[in-house]
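PROTEIN DESIGN WORKSHEET
SECTION A - STRUCTURE
LENGTH: 465
TOKENS:
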């Protein structure tokens, strides 16, 4: 007797029940890279044939990269070998079922043409199943709504979930532990940081979060989670993944990820298993630094080539927050690249967003510099007051720089300039330091405008091209 299969408009309930493969799993580890790939490693108890035979291994990611598959027996490694492998991912769905019945007779529940509130069960031939099913009922073509379709049997070749089918040779025991690993696409992670700055701009709390994005077509239950930070070379185009920003309102967690050096990268491991649902964006705690010191800096940087005809240049003053990623400062963990969002309390106690910046992979004991925006009450104007040719390939020019501070208290400002060619400073109204082969810095204490309208800085540069 043939089994009658019903496809309704609200649900397709065919072989979608949970099978025992999840219960047979001994361990699951997901290592996610920040270029859209993940390494899935699973140990599972599997029943094997004696000699040669087929083994079905279901419950794998839809985005599995089949050439990366590795299988080995932990029970009898010398007695087990995979001879060939198929990845079967033609999954059961309403469309896939009906596609296999095109040109065949089935039963369909249609509206009763004589009674709007009733339906009738009719035999019909499915003519097509493109944007919607088209039926031939007797000598008429029916295109319209239907309540259900009855199929005589399950078509061959369809599976409820992606499955690996192996031809194996097993000379060992019938039940063994298999270690299976493969790379899968559609998984990504990024680091996001929240920096809460005290009112005095001298201390702050930093919390780091990892945002996971799983578009692999598979849910990972109770998985050991590892994250690799670093630029891993892959010989393929990176997949285009949707990124979603989340508002991080969760309280700080007590635990944080464990970190270790791995090859030329850094590996972060969550100390507890985690559930990662398919098509889910999830956040887990990376680090917590409840108290650290930082500095606020006002920096005006200029790097234009000297042009005597450009007139007065109005230059913004950037606001930076800087801190050291050191153990003595409550940190000392290599920081994966990501976005740092900074907040500060106003006088009424409300927390306000003050800026954000992106950091690159930052090793321990390195300095972190975050650009928050531009100062509102401090501005710089620079004017080239002299420009002359003083010799073959030698130019001498003079800058006059005016700094205004509209705040009520003095401001400490760093003014940096980029110079070109073989240069030297011939005269200067203020001391400067040489940062590298092309950059100089002036450190200025600018009084408030109530005490002095502006600070005037002048210096002359002689450069040979």
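SECTION B - SEQUENCE
RESIDUE ASSIGNMENT:
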């Amino acid at each position: 007797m043939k089994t009658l299969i019903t496809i309704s408009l609200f649900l397709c309930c065919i072989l979608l029940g949970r099978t025992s493969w999840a219960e047979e799993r001994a361990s699951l580890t997901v290592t996610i890279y920040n270029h859209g790939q993940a390494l899935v490693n699973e140990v599972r108890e599997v029943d094997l044939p004696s000699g040669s035979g087929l083994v079905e291994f279901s419950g794998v990611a839809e985005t599995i990269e089949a050439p990366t598959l590795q299988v080995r027996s932990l029970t009898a490694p010398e007695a087990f070998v995979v001879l060939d492998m198929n990845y079967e991912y033609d999954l059961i769905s309403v469309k896939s079922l009906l596609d296999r019945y095109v040109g065949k007779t089935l039963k369909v529940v249609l509206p009763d043409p004589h009674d709007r509130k009733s339906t009738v069960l009719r035999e019909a031939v499915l003519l097509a199943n493109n944007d919607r099913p088209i039926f031939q009922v007797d000598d008429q073509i029916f295109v319209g709504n239907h309540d259900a379709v009855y199929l005589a049997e399950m078509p061959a070749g369809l599976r409820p979930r992606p499955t690996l089918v192996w031809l194996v040779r097993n000379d060992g025991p019938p039940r063994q532990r298999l270690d299976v690993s493969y790379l899968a696409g559609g998984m990504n992670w990024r680091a996001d940081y929240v920096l809460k700055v005290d009112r005095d701009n001298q201390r702050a709390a930093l919390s780091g979060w990892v945002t996971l994005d799983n578009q692999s077509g598979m849910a990972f239950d109770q998985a050991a989670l590892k994250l690799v930070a670093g630029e891993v070379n892959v010989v393929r185009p990176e997949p285009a993944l949707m990124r979603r920003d989340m508002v991080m309102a969760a309280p700080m967690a007590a635990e944080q990820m464990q970190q270790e050096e791995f090859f030329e990268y850094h590996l972060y491991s969550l100390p507890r298993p985690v559930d990662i649902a398919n098509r889910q964006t999830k956040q887990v705690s990376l680090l917590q630094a409840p108290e650290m010191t930082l500095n606020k800096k006002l920096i005006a940087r200029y790097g234009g080539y000297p042009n005597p005809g450009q007139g007065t240049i109005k230059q913004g003053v950037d606001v930076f927050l800087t801190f050291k990623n050191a153990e003595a400062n409550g940190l000392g963990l290599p920081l994966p690249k990501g976005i740092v969002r900074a907040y500060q309390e106003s006088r009424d106690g409300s927390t306000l967003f003050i800026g954000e910046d992106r950091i690159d992979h930052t090793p321990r004991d390195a300095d972190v510099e975050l650009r928050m925006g531009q100062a509102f009450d401090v501005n710089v104007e620079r004017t080239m007051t002299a420009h002359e040719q003083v010799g073959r390939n030698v130019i001498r020019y003079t800058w006059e720089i005016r700094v205004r501070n509209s705040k009520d208290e003095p401001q400490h400002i760093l003014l940096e300039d980029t110079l070109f060619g073989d240069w030297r400073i011939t005269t200067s109204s203020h001391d400067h330091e040489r940062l590298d082969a092309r950059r100089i810095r002036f450190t200025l204490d600018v009084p408030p405008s109530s005490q002095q309208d502006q600070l005037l800085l002048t210096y002359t540069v002689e450069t040979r091209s």
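SECTION C - NOTES
The helical segments are 94-99.
The domain at 378-464 is CATH 2.60.40 (Immunoglobulin-like).
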